[in-house]
Amino acid sequence: MEGKLRSVGIHQASGWVEAVLDKLVFTNIPPGMPSDTADNTVLYVGEQIVLDKLRRKHGEIPQKYTPLSGDQVVIQPTSSMGLGVFAKRNFEPGDLVVCERPLLVIAADIYSDPSLAARGLNTNYLINLRQLGTILKSANSHFLRANRDAFADLSKDYALDPVADILIKDHFPELYILSCNGFKTRNDSQMFGVYKDYRVVPRVASRINHSCSPNAIYYFDEATFTFNVVATRKIEASSEISLMYCALEVPRVHRHDSLRCYNIDPCRCVACETSDKEGSDRRRKMIKDIQSDTALVERLADLSLAELLRIQQAVEEEGLHYLAVYPWCCN
Ligand SMILES: C[S@@+](CC[C@H](N)C(=O)[O-])C[C@H]1O[C@@H](n2cnc3c(N)ncnc32)[C@H](O)[C@@H]1O
């Protein structure tokens, strides 16, 4: 079986290289100013039309940004989750915790290119993975040296699927780095060209672990090409910064199912290690029901103070302060 897949893969991949790889741009942004250090440079892999679109929209890209001073966060070992990112000072809700040029921005669904479909080249999950792996190998050779080393050093703790893990992992470690550390750009991003699924691999924020009660959210700013992490609640100096890797308004067992691909089994976050399971599941279900009930969301202003307080308390107990429903209840 392995031999058959391999030979199909090689045949398909060579047609694919002509069809797609040649039309991708690999651009270090900002492009090669003498003053640019590697940590101010993003390798963008995607289509030229996307770059042109961003230039039209923002004037020039990347626009200047103000890097945060070095006394915000520090990367340190955790007790049970490998490395983590810790606050070096107190943060208030809304404070910028990390603002950095990421290592890589890449269209991760390159195999969905319509020109491949027309030529019957994107037919098989494993072949698609090999195609993306081939692109990532090319990306590797375009990194500035320091960024290549930083990328290679990131966690590969990810399971794609049992067959792929046996056939591909040793050949395409970059695929696992992307899967483990790649954050989706937001759905309303203007970056879209042919591809829809842009991933951003940050250098510092890749070390941020998952929590089911996260204290921060992230966004990618395409004008400055920066990856930003913002506190959603108070974070005290020396506590760990956390993000969410999966939907959180679902029962713990569903969260754990979604986290298994990150080899997070069990989840070591404070919420899972300490909270009462049934009570937590009940509160999250209540929050989910409210969120999905658009009529109720529109009527929030009409709810009694007691009802609003109940929602507010549930959100706070579960640490889901980032949800849109939270400020509505507090106001
Ligand atoms: C994006 S990396 C985060 C940084 C990572 N700890 C490191 O040392 O590079 C994701 C990996 O961190 C670990 N991890 C993150 N959150 C975790 C959690 N809540 N429980 C257990 N392990 C976690 C898992 O190994 C996961 O695959």
UniProtKB/TrEMBL annotation:
Residues 69-246 form the SET domain. Transmembrane segments: none annotated. Pfam families: SET. InterPro entries: SET_dom, SET_dom_sf, SET_domain_protein. CDD domains: SET_SMYD. This is SET domain-containing protein.
